[in-house]
Design brief:
The complex is a heterodimer of chains A (335) and B (585). Chain A is mainly alpha-helical and 335 residues long. Chain A has a single domain, classed as MetI-like (MetI-like fold, Orthogonal Bundle), CATH 1.10.3720. Helices cover 65% and strands 0% of the residues of chain A. Chain A is globular, with a radius of gyration of 25 Å. With 585 residues, chain B is an alpha+beta fold. Chain B is 23% helix and 19% strand. Chain B is built from 15 helices and 22 strands. In chain B, α10 links the parallel β15 and β16. In chain B, α7 runs antiparallel to α9 and α14 runs antiparallel to α15. Classes of the chains: A mainly alpha (335), B alpha+beta (585).
């Protein structure tokens, strides 16, 4: 069992066995590691602020239709009458268009911004969830079962890690398109959604292997421990050993890995869209907007600042929160 | 025979042309009026022009001009040049039989003799052309130019498998053009060219090709001595007759030119030799290069960029004289397949087209893409501006609720409610996808059904270029550039019934009356044609409406502050290089 700081409430007693330790009445006995980590997080100001920021973006994404309805605009409607003949917006921040409009097309910046939060978060969260589940299951199986199962899974992990994800992201699109009703026959919406799902798939497919390797390592060391041996000895089924005995001890690496991969996926999605191999019109996304807006920066800075601020704040909050979670779960952290 | 090329600067299509009147029978008639876009030209050719070209006021000699180019010409082999920028750079180093001289005041081109004494003399049957050649012309190394060199370069152009990017009219029109495969494969015996003496070149044709003097302005007609021909490596050390010679050429990266000491200005009615040298740097980043040229800091003041200014850089233009502006040789159009869309529906499509908004979404700059109301662009002699109601290259179309409702009810009256419009667009091109979204929104509002099919950019040309593609809108050629400034490089090739088979039909018209009218005008002399083509132009839009004219391509390229006499060459849609000088060399 790990040792917390002397005044902490970790279940190890630094008192003589005969004496009942004196605890404040409000503190519960024998907290789980998760509970301890949560307590530490709650006291961490940075973590709380970051969580609030992330919650804000999640709410923006969830209520994007409502927010743009309040503004009275929609992300796809062209307003070329609001840009001059050179493509520059003729309006600033107005009650109708809170953040002005896009150059050339005159689409509403605010609506595109709130809708732009959606693909970032959806892609990042689904890729993380998928990658974590697959990674954990594969890691558990490989580590616990050993033998040929371990060798096969380890080989697959090495194989996946050796594949170039950028090439995959580019190459998969036409393949999936031709599976969906033949290539060169899809509407813009169908093409955009194809790109969307391909992107989620690519990110998840390349995300699980790293975690699986970590979990496998952990399991290898855990499975020789007495409580696992004891469970096996009294005939607990393998599935139960895996998920009841081993999994709870793996919460820390899993949570840390997930919380650190979230910001990575947000950046990747924006980066791929920026490069033109991620999301495409008509799905609004921050990465695409940034790619477009760099040319207009001098004349129309707000067009670039909106998605940049969005991505920066979201990624920074996710990354700092991930760091805090890692610290909170790490027993060696002294505070 | 057809050639489709996106030129380096403007989207354009070049192609073979049917024959028409003889340039050497110039009647000197003053023809054509003028419009505010440049107006029409009164005289297309001048067989008597002599060198030297009149000095430019205030021009100074010396210095090196740097060209920072974001596009990379694929070749500088005279036989292989076909893109407009290759032509324009080629004009500095290669002289051909004829050349265009730009009017100092209006900038309008006139065809003048270059290395030939005249613009060619046609035989009675129209199947032989005799060019008298200037005497005493030398290459840069001092060796004399002979008539045999002209004959050899023409023979060389038939090696089209080797020079596959070059123009191909000779294969179509010259004698035995379909059989002769160039000097490497078929030997030197070719019946299509003859050199009776050392200052005479005779070209024999298989069929009448009265635009030959215009065609003879292509760099393909520069002399090439057989002994110096190194095939594909010739562009490294070409024999030059123009005011400059090649000192070094790194394909895709850099071309350096220095003065040609053996160029004699007294024989050249067109070119000058003001700067000491030229330094072309290719494959630059567009926005970066254009910013550099506009800022003109240090050596960048001697630089220019020949692409049209990116619209997002407009606020950075402090000095309007840093932009070379003027008309180009192309018109862009919104094409409709007349075989699939009835005329009444075509009219409604034109009425509903949101041209104003489309221009903004497509990022068109008003100063280099003026709205088009005709098929011929202003740069073509004989252009006469007219505007038909609703076809002005402007207008809100069905974005206007009233128009949308009207179009919708008209469609219902015709029994064509939910008429399906279909077109291809490029899925990985932002402008293309945004334009498609805009048109979709507007046409659906006007009661049409829209099926837009996304294809990869690299494949788009193949799809839209198929005359029988299963779509009814936007087939190419959707933009057309003149190969030479004459209506004969437009109407006979674009609107006659046989154009469908040749793969170059605009609107896929099949109308006997229109064919007959085009043939009638084609048979006239060039000066008679000047007025007539504009009438044909108007008739096509009035009676057939196969296209909605969108805009004329123009020039709007940035030049450094030290560049003098940067004028537009409307035959190429690029700045004219040969007359440029440095204000402070």
């Amino acid at each position: 069992m790990t040792i917390g700081q002397p005044d902490s409430t970790v279940g190890v007693q630094d008192h003589p066995a005969s004496a009942e330790p004196v605890r404040p009445a409000t503190v519960a006995h024998g907290k789980s590691p998760l509970r301890i980590a949560m307590d530490r997080l709650r006291k961490d100001n940075v973590a709380v602020i970051c969580a609030v920021i992330i919650l804000f973006f999640i709410l923006v994404a969830v209520f994007a239709p409502l927010l743009s309805k309040i503004e009275g605009q929609d992300f796809g409607t062209f307003h070329p009458d609001l840009v001059d003949e050179y493509g520059y917006p003729t309006i600033g921040l107005t009650p109708d268009h809170w953040f002005s409009v896009e150059p050339k097309t005159g689409r509403d910046n605010f609506a595109r911004w709130v809708y732009g939060a959606r693909p970032s978060l959806i892609v990042a969260f689904s890729a993380t969830v998928f990658g974590t589940i697959v990674g954990v299951v594969m890691g558990l199986l490989a580590g616990f079962l050993g033998g040929w199962v371990d060798r096969v899974i380890s080989w697959i992990i090495d194989f996946v890690l050796s594949l170039p994800y950028l090439l995959f992201a580019i190459a998969l699109v036409p393949i999936v398109e031709s599976m969906r009703g033949g290539s060169f026959n899809l509407t813009p919406e169908e093409q955009a959604s194809t790109r969307f799902f391909v992107l989620i798939f690519v990110l998840s497919f390349f995300g699980w292997a790293g975690l699986a390797r970590i979990i496998r390592g952990e399991v290898l060391s855990l499975r020789e421990r007495e409580f696992v041996l004891a469970a096996k000895a009294i005939g607990v089924p393998t599935r139960q050993v895996l998920f009841k005995e081993l999994l709870p001890n793996l919460v820390a690496p899993i949570v840390i890995s997930a919380s650190l991969s979230l910001p990575a996926y947000v950046t990747l999605e924006a980066g791929l869209s920026f490069l033109g191999v991620g999301l495409v019109e008509p799905i609004p996304s921050w990465g695409q907007t940034i790619a477009n807006a760099t040319n207009w920066f001098k004349a129309d800075p707000i067009y670039l600042w909106l998605p940049v601020v969005g991505i920066t704040a979201l990624v920074l909050a996710l990354a700092l929160l991930g760091d805090s979670i890692r610290d909170a779960f790490d027993p060696k952290t002294r505070r | 025979m057809q050639w489709k090329r996106i030129t380096a600067v403007a989207a354009g299509v070049m192609l073979a042309v049917a024959a028409c009147g003889s340039p050497s029978s110039n009647s000197g008639n003053e023809a054509g009026g003028s419009g505010d876009l440049g107006g029409a030209q009164v005289k297309a050719i001048d067989a008597t022009a002599k060198g030297p070209a009149k000095e430019i006021d205030g021009a100074k000699k010396g210095g090196t001009v740097t060209v920072l180019s974001d596009v990379t010409p694929d070749t500088f082999d005279p036989t292989n040049i076909y893109y407009t920028d290759g032509n324009q750079i080629g004009k500095l180093i290669y002289r051909a039989l004829t050349q265009y001289k730009l009017d100092p005041a209006s900038g309008k081109p006139t065809l003048v003799p270059d290395l030939a004494e005249d613009l060619g003399t046609k035989s009675a049957d129209g199947l032989s052309w005799t060019f008298k050649l200037k005497k005493g012309i030398k290459y840069q190394d001092g060796s004399p130019v002979t008539a045999a060199d002209f004959a050899y370069s023409i023979k060389r152009s038939f090696a089209h498998d080797l020079y596959d990017a070059g123009p191909t009219y000779q294969i179509q029109f010259f004698k035995d053009g379909d059989k002769y495969k160039g000097p490497y494969a078929s030997g030197d015996n070719y019946a299509g060219v003859e050199t009776p003496d050392d200052s005479t070149l005779v070209i024999h044709l298989a069929k009448k090709f009265d635009d030959l003097p215009f065609y003879a302005a292509f760099p393909m007609f520069t002399p090439i001595p057989k002994a110096k021909d190194t095939k594909k490596n010739y562009e490294q050390r070409p024999m030059t007759t123009g005011p400059y010679q090649v000192t070094s050429y790194t394909p895709g990266t850099e071309l350096k030119l220095a003065k040609n000491p053996n160029w004699d200005p007294n024989t050249d009615p067109v070119r000058y030799q003001y700067p000491d040298g030229w330094d072309f740097k290719f494959a630059q980043d567009t926005i970066k290069a254009q910013r550099q040229v506009l800022a003109s800091a240090g050596p960048d003041a001697n630089a220019l960029n020949y692409s049209n200014l990116d619209v997002s850089l407009l606020p950075e233009v402090k000095d309007q004289s840093q932009l070379v502006k003027g008309p180009g040789p192309c018109t862009q159009m919104y094409t409709m397949d007349a075989r699939k869309i009835p005329l009444e529906v075509r009219k409604l499509i034109a009425k509903a087209h949101p041209t104003d908004s489309w221009r903004k979404v497509a990022g068109l700059n008003p100063s280099d893409s003026p709205p088009a109301s005709t098929i011929l662009p202003p740069a073509v002699p004989g252009f006469e501006k007219y505007e038909l109601p609703g076809l002005t290259g402007t207008g809100k179309g069905a974005e206007d609720d009233a128009v949308a409702a009207e179009v919708k009810s008209e469609l219902a009256k015709l029994g064509k409610s939910n008429f399906e419009l279909s077109w291809y667009y490029s899925i990985d091109d932002k402008i293309s996808t945004q334009v498609t979204q805009l048109r979709k929104q507007v046409y659906e509002k006007a009661g049409f059904k829209v099926r837009a099919i996304g294809v990869p950019k690299a494949k788009l040309r193949t799809f839209v270029g198929d005359q029988n593609a299963p779509v009814n809108i936007g087939k190419t050629p959707a933009g057309w550039c003149s190969d030479w400034p004459s209506g004969t490089s437009w109407f006979p090739v674009l609107f006659k019934s046989d154009a469908i088979e040749l793969g170059n039909s605009v609107g896929q018209l099949q109308d006997k009356a229109l064919d007959a009218e085009i043939d009638r005008v084609s048979a006239m002399t060039p000066d008679e044609q000047l007025k007539e083509w504009s009438k044909v132009d108007k008739m096509i839009l009035e009676k057939y409406l196969p296209v909605v004219p969108l805009y004329y391509t123009g020039t709007n390229s940035p030049v450094g502050k030290n560049i003098g006499h940067a004028v537009n060459d409307m035959t190429q849609g690029l700045p004219e290089f040969t007359s440029i000088y440095l204000k402070q060399p």
